[in-house]
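Title: Prediction job returns without error message
Component: structure pipeline
Severity: low
Priority: P3
Assignee: unassigned

Description:
Job completed but the reporter wants confirmation the result is attached to the right record. Sequence as submitted:
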Amino acid sequence: MTELFLGHFHLKAIGLGGIESCYILPEFQLAFDFGRCPEELIDISRVFLTHGHLDHASGLPYYFSQRSLKHLDSGEVYVPKQILEPLRQILELWHKIEDFSYTINLIPVEPGDKIEVRQNYYIRPLLAHHRICALGYVLVKETRKLKQEFLNLPGEKIRELKEKGERIFDIQETPLFCFSGDTTIEFVTQNPLVQKTEILLLECTYIDEKKPVEIARKWGHVHLDEIATYASCFQNKQLILTHFSKRYTPSQIEEFVKKKLPEELWAKTILLVRPFEKS
């Protein structure tokens, strides 16, 4: 598992297209996708599943089973609403196969929901564009500031207004970290929140002409050429590219990305490959 230290964020990651995807933010006790359930994931209490393909979801039964064996609570697993019941059925079958029951805690989510992860921080599910129903997720920090017209009021008067339900605060939302899951480029181009998030973890499955843009789009993935085409959309402080097809070596990935991306975008790009490398 690769470890990256990105300012205030510590990221533990496995990201290989078609093989395994799991991304952990330890300080927030949350993760995105299960992969095959690496050991580091079992102690994480919140996991957000992007979609049901096995390279992202196969570790789900193992996660619940291992938490039970370690005498941990079930944790909270957030899943796209459309696949809640199929996942529940699969997990109940595993109970029968193992002849052992453990608590299942699946929570359905959809775009527009707001899931608090700790005070002033929450997750928003975002619509992704894949072959099957899929979500991306963005971690947002919420800051409340007293409106200008109330700044000179005494504390007692402010409390009174709050009790009356007056809107006395301006709320500022800062997107800090976003994971796309599997998606087409529209996840970025049609979503200002994604474009402005400080750290964007974006899939980039294909990078060369042997698998052109039309093939990437057919299978619900991003092609490197599209990232180059829409470079102006990436207002992020850092772009992490992941989920590269296993057909590419780390050196090929670096060569193609460095050649195709504009210099300004390349300068803030990290490649999540095996082994991790970035010149």
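Comment from assignee: result matches the submitted record. The chain has a mean pLDDT of 93.
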